[in-house]
Design brief:
about 575 residues, alpha/beta, Rossmann fold, Helicase, Ruva Protein, domain 3, Zinc Finger, Delta Prime, domain 3, 5 domains, four-stranded mixed beta sheet, 9 strands
Length: about 575
């Protein structure tokens, strides 16, 4: 006698509600309906394949027609339960809508629903893949669902609920069967292996559960395939070979290469993927899923606790690097769909991932350099536009000082002690002024600013209102500061216009000003003559100790102090009227 092998998915099909995996909410609702006797005329069970839709319909039919029922725990021994299990009951009819799409078949079913059950309590119709019915068939079924016979019950199963007309859905109770989580599928597979006396590695069962994508039936079918391949213990290596996927060990090895920036290993890895015939989309999905586990582990989640290999891998990355890698992989999944050369795109994205740690974001690089402002706190103003005036004649080159006179760490010529950094010279040095010169300078500046306002109002009428509400001041360097109120958004936009700004600079030069403009928003405090003209505030007198930015620039750029020099003094009468070299 030939021994018939029964597939695991068929052999271990649930025969009681308690045996169903991962559908607790649906099971509890159906059990309560049987217990209370509140059984609706029609039900829709939707979800992906292999999650228990048809099984739940059969168990529900058992509960309705069991001799001890209606009951949430059918006996499984009475004639009704046995016949339903064998699909041989006269009062429980199963129809495959995929092969019975004609309206005549549905009309025959409707006619049969008018007759009372031959023996059992209800006449039950289980229609699988109901979304395959034609529109005429749905219309024929609609009338029966509107006024169903008291003894008729309809159980509709589908994988595409959106194709069922809303008129049908509104007359039925709809239950959505969810994908079964991987850990629940893996635990169920472990129970089956124990019953079948199959030795299986937990990593192999986890890989099978992941490949099943939430379908219990598909996972059992995959387990059947691997058992037939190994004819012995089910190992992770065997699962990888049969399923054609990259195992966790391979993914962790790739992440190790990415963490160390070994981009040269990527081409060989991609070639191996292609040789195995693995789906590139599936590979990227698995890699992104593993990175997601590492992110959760890094943030203190519970993922990865059962796999001791994840913690060392997570330690090689920072949270920032993992998030950037995760984002890159998710974007790669979208780009891979429909790409003409998917393998080249995958290799490109993985090389990018390997080089990620070497790419410093601009904000991080700028964060290493502090604000290059003076030690005094800046006023709460925001400089928007700074336009240099006509280039001044360059000062004569400085003679190099002998190394014996100025050495690293030696006192500077002005008596300050350098702290081992570069010395900054003023871009436009200005000469010192006494009080009489300062008063004469301010009077002269006021006269030029007045002429500038008059000329600007005459030549640029659109700018008249903006300049009327602005505060104008001239600093000793010859820069005209145009300070706008914070609320003058229109004025700021006008001054940011290149053509209008150049026109204003031309007007400034005609009014006797150098032509340099600095546009600011917000209040700008008046310059203190003593602070502005004091020798201690000259840029060329600041030492590295007084400029904290100097030390940071040396550290970031990897420089060292070679020579400390001072700009030529402009205190003599040979300077220009505003401190510019002549």
């Amino acid at each position: 006698m030939i021994k018939v092998y029964e597939a695991l998915a068929r052999k271990y099909r649930p025969q009681a509600f308690e045996d169903m995996v991962g559908q607790g909410a649906v099971v509890k609702t159906l059990q309560n309906a049987l217990t209370t006797g509140k059984i609706h005329p029609a039900y829709i069970f939707s979800g992906i394949r292999g999650v228990g839709k048809t099984t739940a319909a059969r168990l529900f039919a058992k509960g309705m027609n069991c001799l001890e029922g209606p009951t949430a725990t059918p006996c499984g021994k009475c004639p009704s339960c046995v016949e339903i299990k064998r699909a041989a009951s006269m009062d429980v009819l199963e129809i495959d809508a995929a092969t019975n799409t004609q309206v005549e078949k549905i009309r025959d079913l409707i006619d049969a629903s008018r007759y009372t059950p031959a023996r059992d309590r209800y006449r039950i119709f289980i229609i699988d893949e109901v979304h395959m019915l034609s529109l005429s068939s749905f219309n024929a079924l609609l009338k029966t669902l509107e006024e169903p016979p008291a003894h008729a019950r309809f159980l509709l199963a589908t994988t595409e609920a959106h194709k069922i007309p809303e008129t049908i859905q509104s007359r039925a109770q709809h239950f959505q069967f969810r994908r079964v989580p991987e850990h629940q599928v893996a635990a169920f597979l472990a129970q089956i292996c124990a019953k079948e006396e199959i030795v299986a590695e937990p990593a192999a069962l986890s890989l099978i559960a992941k490949s099943g994508e939430g379908s219990v039936r598909d996972s059992l079918t995959l387990l059947d395939r691997i058992v037939a391949y190994t004819d012995g213990p089910v190992s992770e290596a065997a699962a990888v070979e049969v399923l054609g996927v990259t195992g966790r060990e391979g993914l962790l090895s790739l992440l190790g290469a990415l963490s160390e920036g070994r981009a040269s290993d990527i081409p060989e890895f991609v070639d191996k993927l292609l040789d195995r015939g693995q789906s590139l989309e599936r590979f990227l999905s698995d890699l992104a899923g593993l990175v997601r586990e590492l992110v959760r582990l890094k943030l203190g989640g519970a993922d990865g606790v059962g796999d001791p290999r994840l913690a060392p891998c997570a330690g090689r990355f920072s949270e920032e690097d993992l998030l950037r890698l995760w984002d890159l992989l998710l974007v790669s999944q979208q780009r891979l769909k429909g790409a003409p050369e998917a393998d080249a795109l995958l290799e490109l994205q993985l090389v990018k991932a390997a080089l990620l740690p070497r790419i410093l974001p601009l904000d991080r690089l700028l964060g290493r350099v502090p604000d290059l402002s003076t030690p005094e706190p800046e006023p709460p103003s925001q400089r928007q536009v700074v336009t240099p005036g006509p280039p001044a004649e360059a000062p004569p080159p400085e003679p190099d000082l002998p190394a014996s006179k100025v050495q690293e760490g030696a006192p500077s010529p002005d008596g300050s002690q350098p702290s081992g950094g570069l010395r900054f010279k003023a871009i436009i040095p200005f000469k010192r002024m006494d009080e009489d010169e300062a008063r004469a300078y301010d009077d002269q500046a006021d006269d030029r600013i007045r002429r500038f306002r008059e000329n600007a109002a005459r030549r640029l009428p659109l700018m008249q209102e903006t300049l009327k509400g602005a505060s104008l001041s001239l600093d000793p360097d010859g820069v005209l500061h145009v300070s706008l109120p914070p609320t003058d958004i229109t004025g700021a936009a006008l001054l940011n216009n290149r053509e209008r700004r150049e026109a204003l600079e031309a007007v400034a030069r005609e009014s006797g000003l150098p032509g340099s403009l600095a546009v600011e928003t917000g209040a700008r405090p008046e310059l203190e003559p003593s602070a502005a003209r004091s020798p201690s505030h000259r840029p060329d007198s600041l030492t590295p100790a007084e400029n904290p930015a100097v030390d940071n620039v040396l550290r970031v750029l990897g420089g060292r102090l070679i020579r400390v020099t001072a700009p030529p003094a402009l205190d003599s009468a040979e300077g220009g009227p505003h401190g510019e070299p002549e």
